[in-house]
């Protein structure tokens, strides 16, 4: 436990929430991906469905953790954070925000009345992606605030919108 605290610069026990939550979400992600492959290849309901899940999920989890550690090292000097555990919180916020904005766009497009059955798929997906963008921007700051990273995400938003030519709103 001491090694974990040192590696992620954890001073208080409540900060352990982020590495634990990160590990749990990564495990869930690995399981969901493997489950998706099991369903895609028609293995569900077969005798070997669960053995495949139990073998492939930890293997994918291992590679996802390695990938995320590599990502941490890549952004470690770019992101201005006080402690390394904050990087885990930031990655979690990005993951939750991306997933949630994608999930919220579908009912919003449906509410507007532009289902994939009513309009051409190109128009449907273009509108859905256009809706995802503002939802994502709002959720990013809000969920960042919930995870105690408001200032990081507010600065991130301003920088991103300025690069897109929308910087006049923040002058």
From TrEMBL:
InterPro entries xref list: DUF6787 (IPR046714)
Residues passing through the membrane, by range: 16-38, 50-72, 84-105, 125-154
Source organism superkingdom: Bacteria
Domain DUF6787 per the UniProt entry, residue ranges: 90-166
Keywords of the record: Membrane, Transmembrane, Transmembrane helix
The keyword Transmembrane helix belongs to this UniProt entry's keyword annotation: yes
Record-given protein name: DUF6787 family protein
Annotated organism of origin: Flagellimonas halotolerans
Lineage: Bacteria, Pseudomonadati, Bacteroidota, Flavobacteriia, Flavobacteriales
């Amino acid at each position: 436990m001491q090694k974990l605290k040192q590696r992620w610069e954890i001073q208080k026990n409540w900060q352990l929430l982020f590495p634990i939550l990160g590990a749990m979400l990564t495990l869930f992600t690995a399981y969901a991906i493997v489950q998706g492959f099991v369903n895609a290849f028609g293995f569900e309901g077969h005798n070997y469905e669960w053995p495949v899940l139990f073998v492939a999920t930890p293997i994918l989890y291992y590679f996802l953790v390695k990938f995320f550690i590599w990502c941490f090292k890549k952004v470690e000097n770019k992101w201005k954070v006080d402690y390394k555990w904050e990087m885990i919180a930031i990655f979690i916020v990005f993951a939750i925000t991306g997933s949630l904005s994608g999930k919220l766009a579908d009912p919003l497009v449906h509410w507007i009345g532009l289902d994939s059955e009513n309009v051409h798929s190109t128009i449907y997906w273009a509108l859905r992606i256009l809706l995802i963008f503002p939802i994502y921007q709002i959720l990013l700051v809000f969920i960042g605030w919930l995870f105690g990273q408001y200032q990081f995400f507010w600065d991130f938003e301003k920088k991103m919108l300025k690069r897109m030519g929308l910087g006049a709103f923040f002058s």
